[in-house]
């Protein structure tokens, strides 16, 4: 028994050492409210083609778990909210869930975490009493299957559990849930697990009544006179994202519990919204997610925990068009279901999206009036002689179907053809020049040097291919080695 405990501790140490060695990561959420959802194999092909190493599933879909086998991709599986009550009232139900949805897939499918419900405290508060029992029962089922060293358990909560997140240093959890949250934190501490946080600067900004500038929400530098500072600690916050994470750390500290890292299980920005959602734009979504990725991959944490990186999952892979609610709720995806990217992303610090200094593009201004954009678009495609076939319905540049996008394509086509003979990039003040190639997915702007946007990590991909060993990222290679090591160690542990 002593040897088994020692061996288990060694496995955990190896896991921690390896996790620190590979640095912070950015993963992707895969929602299910999608019309014409690609097959599980096609989804995994998209993930592999774009070197996505971590995914979060909101359920334990058998097709996805099978398709992810032997991919090296780390998988967080979810217990649906409607399942939490039953599992929280029955250890047998928890054991059956683990046997069916975890034990039967590992080690081929690299399941490393279970998310018990999603924002349970704020969406189904009647289940609060059984949330921690459900987590405990799932953990005990993992222990019984000798999987507790491989698979961690937690539960994602929204920022709504913290009524006043700013300034971060005074943040505390809603006292209504003090007992539940205290028990949760004790469990996370005892099992070396993470606090799962859903943090959305988009919501923080749009509901903030102008208190914070949009640049703060988009990770953009602020002038010295607009710096966001916690008056109690004098810590400077360069982004609302960091402030949200830090507020959660301080709320945990209020329980006199330490040593629990935070993992952001959801964040992102919608790229399309309704008439009353002016901040849901392609430009803002692209800026937020690119800056988020750079922020996470610099391997540092918020001011109160600078040495603890904030691993993060972007919401989400595809637009969930089946979701009820405003237009923005349906348009958070990074990809269309045909596998093309909505906009270009750069996944690593060494592969940033950069401008091509040899080419200048003409695009619509983000702040341009829609009526003026329509006039400029009509002129460019008519009298201006721009080739606007690519922005017609069914063509590669039709989506996103916005004046901003269509005008950018038409303006640029006109400008590339005529700027050498006096054509300008003005269009009644609605246009501006840029050296960043605005191409995305299979939508290629005139002047682009290649079929893929330079530096993009999410190029258009054909559905179905698999990545060869030579094309795999080094992380996946390391992960497969580590998975093999853990599998062998686990087998040895079972035999002891």
Automatic annotation (TrEMBL):
<keyword id="KW-0611">Plant defense</keyword>
<dbReference type="InterPro" id="IPR000490">
    <property type="entry name" value="Glyco_hydro_17"/>
</dbReference>
<dbReference type="GO" id="GO:0009506">
    <property type="term" value="C:plasmodesma"/>
</dbReference>
<keyword id="KW-0449">Lipoprotein</keyword>
<keyword id="KW-0325">Glycoprotein</keyword>
<dbReference type="GO" id="GO:0042973">
    <property type="term" value="F:glucan endo-1,3-beta-D-glucosidase activity"/>
</dbReference>
<keyword id="KW-1003">Cell membrane</keyword>
<feature type="domain" description="X8">
    <location>
        <begin position="360"/>
        <end position="445"/>
    </location>
</feature>
<keyword id="KW-0732">Signal</keyword>
<keyword id="KW-0326">Glycosidase</keyword>
<dbReference type="GO" id="GO:0006952">
    <property type="term" value="P:defense response"/>
</dbReference>
<keyword id="KW-1015">Disulfide bond</keyword>
<dbReference type="InterPro" id="IPR012946">
    <property type="entry name" value="X8"/>
</dbReference>
<keyword id="KW-0472">Membrane</keyword>
<dbReference type="GO" id="GO:0098552">
    <property type="term" value="C:side of membrane"/>
</dbReference>
<keyword id="KW-0336">GPI-anchor</keyword>
<dbReference type="InterPro" id="IPR044965">
    <property type="entry name" value="Glyco_hydro_17_plant"/>
</dbReference>
<comment type="similarity">
    <text>Belongs to the glycosyl hydrolase 17 family.</text>
</comment>
<dbReference type="GO" id="GO:0005975">
    <property type="term" value="P:carbohydrate metabolic process"/>
</dbReference>
<keyword id="KW-0378">Hydrolase</keyword>
<dbReference type="Pfam" id="PF07983">
    <property type="entry name" value="X8"/>
</dbReference>
<dbReference type="GO" id="GO:0005886">
    <property type="term" value="C:plasma membrane"/>
</dbReference>
<protein>
    <recommendedName>
        <fullName>glucan endo-1,3-beta-D-glucosidase</fullName>
        <ecNumber>3.2.1.39</ecNumber>
    </recommendedName>
</protein>
<feature type="signal peptide">
    <location>
        <begin position="1"/>
        <end position="21"/>
    </location>
</feature>
<dbReference type="InterPro" id="IPR017853">
    <property type="entry name" value="GH"/>
</dbReference>
<dbReference type="Pfam" id="PF00332">
    <property type="entry name" value="Glyco_hydro_17"/>
</dbReference>
């Amino acid at each position: 028994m002593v040897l088994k405990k020692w061996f288990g501790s060694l496995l955990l140490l190896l896991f921690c050492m390896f996790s620190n060695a590979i640095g912070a990561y950015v993963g992707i959420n895969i929602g299910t409210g999608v019309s014409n959802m690609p097959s599980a194999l096609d989804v995994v092909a998209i993930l592999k083609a774009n070197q996505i190493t971590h995914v979060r599933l909101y359920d334990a879909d058998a097709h996805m778990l099978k398709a992810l086998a032997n991919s090296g991709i780390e998988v967080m599986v979810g217990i649906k909210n409607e399942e939490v009550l039953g599992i929280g009232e029955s250890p047998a139900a928890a054991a059956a869930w683990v046997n069916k949805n975890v034990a039967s897939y590992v080690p081929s499918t690299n399941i490393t975490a279970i998310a018990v419900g999603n924002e349970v405290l704020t969406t189904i508060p009647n289940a609060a009493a059984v949330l921690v029992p459900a987590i405990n029962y799932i953990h005990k089922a993992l222990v019984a299957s000798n999987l507790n060293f491989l698979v961690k358990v937690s539960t994602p909560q929204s920022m709504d559990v913290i009524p006043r997140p700013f300034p971060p240093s005074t943040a505390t959890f809603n006292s209504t849930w003090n007992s539940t949250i205290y028990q949760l934190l004790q469990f996370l501490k005892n099992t070396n697990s993470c606090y799962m946080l859903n943090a959305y600067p988009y919501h923080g900004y749009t509901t903030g009544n102008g208190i914070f500038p949009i640049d703060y929400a988009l990770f953009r530098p602020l002038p010295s006179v607009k710096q966001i500072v916690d008056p109690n600690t004098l810590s400077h916050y360069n982004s609302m994202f960091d402030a949200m994470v830090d507020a959660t750390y301080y709320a945990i500290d209020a329980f006199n519990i330490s040593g629990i890292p935070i993992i952001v299980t959801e964040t992102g920005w919608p790229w399309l919204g309704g008439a009353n959602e002016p901040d849901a734009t392609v430009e803002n979504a692209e800026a937020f997610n690119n800056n988020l990725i750079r922020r996470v991959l610099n391997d540092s944490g918020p001011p109160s925990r600078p040495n603890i990186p904030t691993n993060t999952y972007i919401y989400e892979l595809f637009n969930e068009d089946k979701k009820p609610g405003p237009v923005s709720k349906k348009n958070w995806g990074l990809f269309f279901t045909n596998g093309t990217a909505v906009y270009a992303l750069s996944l690593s610090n060494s592969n940033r999206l950069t401008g091509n200094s040899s080419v200048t593009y003409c695009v619509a201004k983000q702040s341009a009036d829609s009526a003026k954009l329509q006039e400029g678009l009509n002129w460019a495609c008519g009298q201006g002689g721009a080739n606007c076939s690519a922005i017609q319905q069914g063509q590669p540049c039709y989506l996103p179907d916005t004046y901003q996008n269509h005008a950018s394509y038409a303006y640029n086509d006109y400008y590339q053809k005529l700027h050498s003979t006096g054509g300008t990039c003005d269009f009644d003040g609605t246009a501006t020049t840029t050296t960043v190639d605005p191409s995305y997915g299979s939508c290629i702007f005139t002047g682009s040097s290649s079929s893929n946007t330079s530096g993009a990590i999410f190029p258009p991909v054909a559905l179905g291919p698999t990545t060869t060993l030579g094309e795999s990222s080094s992380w996946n290679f390391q992960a497969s080695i580590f998975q093999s090591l853990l599998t062998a160690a686990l087998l040895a542990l079972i035999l002891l």
